[in-house]
Amino acid sequence: MSKRFVKVYPRFERLWHWTQVLLIFVLMFTGLRVSGVHALIPFGPAVMLHTIAALTLLVVWIFATFWLFTTGTWRQFLPKVEGMLATARYYAYGIFKGEEPPYQKQMLRKHNPLQAATYFGLKWFVFPAIWVSGIIYLTYNFWDSGSDSTFVLEVVRNIHLLAAYVIFAFVIVHVYLLTTGHGFREHVKPMVTGYDCIELTPEQEAYLETNEPGRLKPVTPAE
Amino acid sequence: MHAKRTITAFASLAFSLTLGLSASVAFAQEVIPPVPGEGSTADHSKFKILQQEFKSGPEVTAACLSCHTEADDQVMHSIHFQWEFDNPATGQTLGKSKVINAFCGNVVGNEPRCTSCHAGYGWDDMHSEPPQQSNAVDCLVCHDQSGQYTKLATGAGHPPLGDIPGQPVSGKTITGADAWAVDLMKAAQSVGMPTRENCGQCHFYGGGGDNVKHGDLSSALYDPDIHTDVHMSKDGANMVCSDCHTEESHSWAGSRYLLDAKDTIGTGEPGEHRFSATCESCHGTEPHPVNLMGIKLNDHTDKVACQTCHIPEFARGGIATKTKWDWSTAGRLNEAGQPIAEHNFTQSDGQELHTYLTIKGDFEWGENVTPYYAWFNGAVEYTLPEEEIDPSQVVEINKLLGTPDGADSRIWPFKRMVGRQSYDAGYNKLAYSHVWGPTTDTAFWTNYDWGKAIEAGMRAAGSDYSGEYGFIDTYMYWPITHMVAPAAEAMDCVECHAEDGRLVGLAGVVMPGTNPNSIVGRLGQLLVLLSALGVIGHGLLRLISRGKGGTH
User: Membrane spanning segments where (chain A) (predicted)?
Assistant: First the structure.
């Protein structure tokens, strides 16, 4: 077993991630404006910006979904019960004692069990909730059929609102967790450069050296 | 037409010169002879029958009818002449001859004054139908283009006349100006299609003065700037009333008794004549451009009337409207026993408007007034004179029909007139009052005695009177549909999409931005707050415990 710098985030995934960051930020900012929480920009432009950002994000998601399934990366997001308790215990207790995290990034498993579960919930429930409710909200005039529709729209609006706040909360925790472990810079860096320090089995290392040398950074003396 | 051709010629001349094409210059310099008869094939000044010294309005009408053989019959079928309207939506019979309003009250008993605006001559008794002889129709009030025809304020529809046309005569006109002798021949020879000046003579002065009644119909519309009315301004479309209020046989589309509150037809088929005065009949049902903003605005048209956004305020253009009329205080005299007039409202043009008159009571005025908004399906239900009312409540003189979110309703802007007016305290119904009558000893404006005025009013109307009267608070609603602002001055989203927005309290519509602290909103904010507190707490604990244990 040796630690090597391996390209774990291909260019598409990095682009996907940062586009999402930008769009979700725009959506949160304009969404809060539209729902009346702040008034930093005028209402009309906020609605239009929100719509543009949402439609763009939907297109990005369509590409990402396609990518996830064709590359098999979707498996990364499957939750696993195994190790979850240990991870939870670490963040609730061990981290303060300076313990080692019970989970190490592996080549085929980028997320710890808690992360995987979180992303599973986001991708299967919260994200669909927000974009499905968003599309229904946006296309109101195509399905509006009188007084019942107002009630339906009110429900849809609240689902959208709640999902948005859940994503807001996720963003807070997500950004905070980057500060744990090796620190913020070290955590953000792989998502910028694509390379992360990964524990490789000799077989994996040999495979990469032979077949995908581009994904491996050469071992430097300092390392 | 002629002016337009001249401009075109100049424009093409300039264009040709720029290009330096001499052939085009020669073409453009050709003199185009003017086409005679603007908008008509007849020059009425050439008709022999109109070249006579007319002695009265009806004489002119008789001359008109010698060619326009069916005009009298058509006019007599219209609400302008009948002052009666059978409302199919409610089954009520409405019209000036039937209702009691929140302004001057009732016509009956006050005829020659109130019927001065009748589109006919000599209707001086509400107990009988309007005069039926064919020359009782007043053609000139709508068709005069000489600008000097008018009606006497107390003449049951007749114009002020005298020996020398143009010279002052006693009395006032229906617009409140000092009367002059009308030149009937000049008027008869000038006739043309109605302009804003024609309709405005009556409709701008309803309720006894400029803009008193409607709020969106004032003398400002004779020649409005573009900010006051984009349609009627010379800098805008320079439209006249009948451009929207389309006509069929002297009957006009558009009535506040029953209007088309939600026009789903729009412009109709190409070339189709629509008997409708809606915005949609010209602008279509999806009037905004197809872009990100326009699509969203078009989405609003199912629930929000065009007027709601495009007429942000009424009584614009410098003429105030009466917003409150309290009859109950009328009759106060000064120490010398003389009637009082107080003027405590200054209009933007500096004019002082009355806020108390002994004959009429207390008033409030408003300029650039924010409308009152309500769901409206276009029909109003009147509190008719014989209906029982609850004097402990504010009585709605004309209740707005329509249901929140109803398929036939939209959110409309209104002038909500606040009134305090007399009622029969024994029978709990609206009271008729006899206010005008210089020669009677019962008319309120002459004697300042409510008891006598109401008794006389009830008697004139043939209505049972208990002998007791009191005053009730009333609301009367006037749909706002004129004084459309240029598109750039339409209401901003935030006027409604805000916590203290204009539509607060209106059910049946989902309005983002009006309630950021709804239950779900609060729940979400709590979640975000807890997350923030959680990570702050977690981070602090990590800081405190730092240094113990390993590097990770």
Answer: 21-41, 47-70, 116-139, 159-179
